[in-house]
TrEMBL record:
Gene3D superfamilies: P-loop containing nucleotide triphosphate hydrolases. Keywords: ATP-binding, Nucleotide-binding, Transport. PANTHER family: ABC TRANSPORTER ATP-BINDING PROTEIN. It comes from the Bacteria. This is ABC-2 type transport system ATP-binding protein. One of its GO terms (molecular function) is ATP binding. Residues 5-234 form the ABC transporter domain. Pfam families: ABC_tran.
């Protein structure tokens, strides 16, 4: 099955010389939830804006459901729904009229039943006659999602959709995302809440300085790059790590009460047994041990803050 979105050698450079996108190649599968992660200024919003036809690329091409975004822009924009970071809408209009108007912009016939379902799914039905200016920030964000869904797109971009949204609204939004995916809608999201990507995404892409440095199945990524942290709760606090433990890359935490050791579970020798023996040999007692798996956030930080990004992406 061909990808629903194909990005080929996509470049965006500005007159100032800043390169926002540097030869990005990316395929998005139909019906998946794809999380695009990266630090501020990495190129996430620029990439989304080019695909959605808001920003003109400097080079390369993008196909949406087989249609070129430049030559077939009317079709591709109909296929796409976008929830931007910024809340841009008519503050003096009512919720329901705003959403109806958005549907009409795409030449879609009026469908009150559909609009009602969208507003109910987003807990906006009771606010349908309220003016946008009367809503909280979280409810305004929901209106932006309703507008994006009003013309029944097959691809939905969510650019930081839960920024400024409280926990309850965030949970409801992600439930809606799951429901949309079940109907075959492809979801591409950017988020600073990496735990959301860890919970929701099928695949993860990491962009940094305009370059896509990694695209991987989430489960495979965590298995490939994930490590475990062994935390040793000491019986007595330490002022410094003893020189006898130099063979292990240890760190001291919680005012000297905890030693942490990061190890690769795939390695033939993890070093854990030898470390515990050495602790006994030098008379360092401990009260408890526990381990935890690396999270997607740990992996993300490693990718964008170490010089190994090129190697990982290869």
């Amino acid at each position: 099955m061909p990808p629903v979105i194909r990005v080929e050698a996509l470049t965006k450079a500005y007159a100032s010389g800043h390169v926002a996108l540097d030869a990005v190649d990316l395929d998005i599968r139909e019906g998946e939830i794809f999380a695009l992660l990266g630090p501020n200024g990495a190129g996430k919003t620029t990439l989304i804006s080019v695909i959605c036809g808001i920003v003109t690329p400097s080079g390369g091409r993008v196909l949406v459901r087989g249609h070129d975004i430049v030559r077939n822009y009317r079709q591709t924009r109909t296929d796409i729904g976008l929830v931007p970071q910024e809340l841009h809408t008519d503050m003096f209009e009512t919720v329901i009229n705003t959403v109806r108007f958005s549907r009409g912009l795409f030449g879609k016939a009026r469908n009150d039943a559909l609009i009602e379902r969208i507003l109910r799914d987003l807990s906006l039905w009771d606010k349908r006659k309220a003016k946008i200016m009367e809503l909280s920030g979280g409810m305004k964000r929901r209106v932006m999602i309703a507008k994006a869904l009003s013309h029944e797109p097959r691809v939905l971009f969510l650019d930081e959709p839960t920024a400024g949204v409280d926990v309850e609204l965030r949970r409801d939004m992600w439930e809606l995302v799951r429901q949309l995916r079940e109907t075959g809608v492809t979801i591409i999201l950017t988020t600073h809440y990496i735990e959301e990507a860890e919970e929701m995404a099928d695949r993860v892409g990491v962009i940094d300085k305009g370059r896509l440095i990694l695209v991987e199945e989430k489960a495979t990524l965590m298995q490939k790059l994930g490590k475990k942290t062994l935390t040793i709760h000491l019986a007595q606090p330490l002022d410094a790590i003893p020189r006898e433990l130099d063979d292990w890359e240890l760190s001291l935490h919680h005012d000297g009460h905890e030693l942490e050791y990061l190890f690769d579970t795939r390695a033939e020798r993890t070093g854990v047994s030898a470390l515990l023996r050495t602790l006994g040999d030098i008379g360092l007692g401990y009260k408890d041990l526990n381990t935890r798996e690396s999270s997607l956030e740990d992996i993300f930080v490693k990718l964008v803050h170490t010089p190994q990004s090129d190697e990982v992406a290869a």
